[in-house]
Each structure stands twice: as structure tokens, then as C-alpha cells.
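# step 3/5: fold
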Amino acid sequence: MKKRLILGILVSLPMMGQVGLGLSPMRLEVGLRPGQAYSGALELTNELGGRMRARGELLDFRLDETMTPQFGRTMESESEWSCRSWLTVNPMETEIETGQRLLVRFTIRVPADAAPQSYHCAVGFTAMPRAGEVASTGVRNTVRVVGAFYVRVGESRGQGMVRSLQMEGEGGARRAVLLVKNDSNCYFRPEGQVEVLDGNGGVLETLTVPAFPVLPKREQRFLLPLAPGTAQPAALRVRVDLGLGEIQEATVRLAKSGVDGI
């Protein structure tokens, strides 16, 4: 099977104090066969001030209803989809000089009996405070950067459906909310847009649906803020590909309050 690798950014936590870590790439997507292994490297960087110690840990993660990744050492809800036990990383703890770029090597080993579906896991690195920092300030500033791994095993393919489309909020805090359901055993990333329409069908604003993953066997909310100056919409129209290679389209008429939908 041909391997497919996509690199990009998933998440990093904001830098605090004078400690900074960088990690690249922060997302990896690869297709593998049962029993196959894949090796590569991440680049860990000391971006701010002084020698530091970075400590790694292998993580599970899920995506909450606000499109925010939630990480943990183990997550029961993700046990069926976790690749954490397949992942090895070296080194897991190291010291880095200012401006140094350190290669962190990883290997994903897919078990021979792995089911044909997608799996996800992550590695996080935490910058530990320098000697004397806690004692002198009374505050422990730490930073964590996370790299996410998405593994498709076999010929698994995600596919989804639009469950609902509605407006939420009032005034300058309005947003369209697209709810997508994934009944398959593989994640996918939607591609498309939501058009905000006036009473005559004219387009007031076009909102891009972010290529945010919808993990297997769940629903995911996509939050699409409207620009503050956009007029009160009368309808929403969605055109989106949900992993099927075809566009799904639906138009929703809104109540006068603008908060209803399907």
C-alpha cells in the first residue's frame, strides 16, 4: 500500500514566562497495512531563553464540541481508536540549548491483527522550569507542545452526513453551527462552505468549513462565526464533501430570531 503523509499544525499551548518550545511537524497522517511499521522524526526546538529540559509523554486525545483537542495519558472513550501503544519515541526526556533543533525519532508499529479502521494518538513535550525558577518566583511556568498522529489501517475510508445546520448567538457573537455525523470506522476531514443568505437568496457572507477531523463513530460541531457587520440572515446553505468524494447540499430557512435550523 502506498503511504500517504500530510504535515501541518494541530495545536500548541501558549508560551508562558521565558520558556518556549517548538515542534514540527505537529500533525502526521499515514496509511499502513496490518503488521507494517513507519518511522520518522519530529524537530523539537528551544525557542526562548536558556538551556531547558523537555519531557515527553504518549497521549490519547479527543476533540470536544468547541473544536478543541483534549489530551490525556489514557482516555477510555478513545481506547478502540488509540494508537498510543503502537508509538515509540526517542528521546522521551532531553536537555536543549537556546536555539537548538533536536531530532526526536518515532516509530509506529501496527499490530498484525489490527482492524481496518483509523486510529489516533499523540506525543506531548513539556518544558520543565529551569533550576531556581519556582523558588525565586513562587510560580511554576510550563509549556507543552503536542504532535498528533492519525493512522489509517487497510482500506478504511471515512464518510459522514450533515445532521443539522443552525444559527446560535446574537449581535456580534452570532455563528453558524454545522453538526456532522461520522458513522464509519475512519476519520475524515470535510471540505466545503456555508453560505449566509438574505430573504431573496442573495449571499451575505461565505463561511469556509475548516478541514477539522471528524473522528470515528461520533458527531462533531463546526463553529463558523459571522462577521460583526453581516445583516440578519434568512437562510443558510451548506455545500460540503464529507469523505465521499461528492458534494452534499442543503438549505435551511431560519426563524426570525435567527436561532432555529434543522
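# step 4/5: annotate
Residues 1-19, 135-140 have pLDDT under 50 and may be disordered.
# step 5/5: archive (pending)
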